[in-house]
Specification:
mainly alpha; three-stranded antiparallel β-sheet; globular
Length: 168
């Protein structure tokens, strides 16, 4: 556990914030319309920035971004076709969504955090595998999968909001 001493303090603040967000999603709740749309976009930015900072000065940047983009696009496209649960509502007068409680956001937030932490740890330990093309493509695909799930959720909620506003 000595490696924890070398982890920047801000990492633990991010973990605490993600835990708070994920645990707050366990219960049915009303949230302002921006929150469930902006959080997935922020998580996607976190995934892309990880790839860019990891591989910016290498020949692996373009394959990494293309792998991320391909998996993200396919995942978002497929999942955005699924209907939202019936319990999801948008009330235009209040500008709020009603979201049913779920542990899925917690699992997603912790999943991407743990994955990003693992890649950062491997990079910090100077493990040569982090520059292997198959590894690069694999982590890019996993980041793309997370991003696609997040973005499909944001897209479906944005479309629900848009339809609700048109009906008014």
């Amino acid at each position: 556990m000595i490696f924890v001493k070398h982890v920047p303090v801000w990492v633990f603040f991010i973990l605490a914030a993600l835990l708070w967000l994920g645990l707050s999603a366990r219960k049915n709740r009303w949230v302002r319309w921006r929150v469930p749309i902006i959080v997935p976009i922020a998580m996607t930015f976190m995934a892309v920035s990880s790839l860019v900072t990891q591989y910016l000065a290498t020949d692996a940047l373009m394959p990494a971004v293309l792998a991320w983009l391909g998996v993200c696009g396919l995942t978002a496209r497929q999942l955005s076709r699924r209907p939202l649960p019936e319990a999801v509502l948008y009330i235009a007068e209040s500008g709020k969504f009603h979201l049913p409680g779920s542990y899925v956001p917690l699992a997603m937030y912790l999943g991407i955090f743990a994955f990003k932490f693992m890649v950062g740890f491997m990079t910090g330990m100077h493990m040569p595998i982090v520059n292997d093309l198959l590894f690069v493509l694999g982590i890019s695909a996993i980041y793309g999968l997370f991003s696609g799930v997040f973005l499909s959720s944001a897209w479906r909620l944005a479309m629900l909001r848009r339809q609700s506003l048109k009906l008014e």
